[in-house]
Amino acid sequence: MKNTHLVIFLALTVILVSASGKISAQRYSFNKWDRVIFRNNPPVSQRIFNLTEFNMGYGARYLDEPYEIRRAGITTLLAFRYTRNISIGLGAGLETYNGGTLAPLFIEGQYYLTQFVKGSTKPFLTGASGILYNVSGIKTDIRVFANPGFGFLIPITYRASLSVSVGLYSQWEVKVERYSFINAKIGLLFY
Fold this sequence. Notes:
Blueprint: H1 2-26, H2 29-37, E1 48-59, E2 70-81, E3 86-97, E4 100-112, E5 122-137, E6 142-157, E7 160-173, E8 178-190
Antiparallel strand pairs: 1-2, 1-8, 2-3, 3-4, 4-5, 5-6, 6-7, 7-8
């Protein structure tokens, strides 16, 4: 059952990313918006965006222990674009594991690779790091996480984009052991 969900999610991700050239050929709104916004030092209100994502991950090594096999959740990020290529923000969420529920509070940065594409689909590098709080379930000492990744922004409307990314989600108990997950995220970004 859990493998079926992963296969469906990855298949949809591949279809969206491969079709993004055809979708973006109809409308170059994302790059036009970037050029208009960053032409004359825009006000702060035009640089703030929200990214809400559904994420899921499966353990990179199979151990039959709580908080090590699988995870899924939703996060939201309120961020600020410093330039056309760099953004940073604060986020929070709720994630369920095979042992309980944890709430992350994190900082995330993104670097958009605008120099490598001509269309409106924008590849990006992302990195998040933060603290995990135990909400319910088995008590755990897992406190810290990091999540580097790579993804694409696919424009939907003039001020909204679909965000698809994959990465390596690692969490650890301070001075003990690290647990890693292959992580996939899909979400909506609103300016």
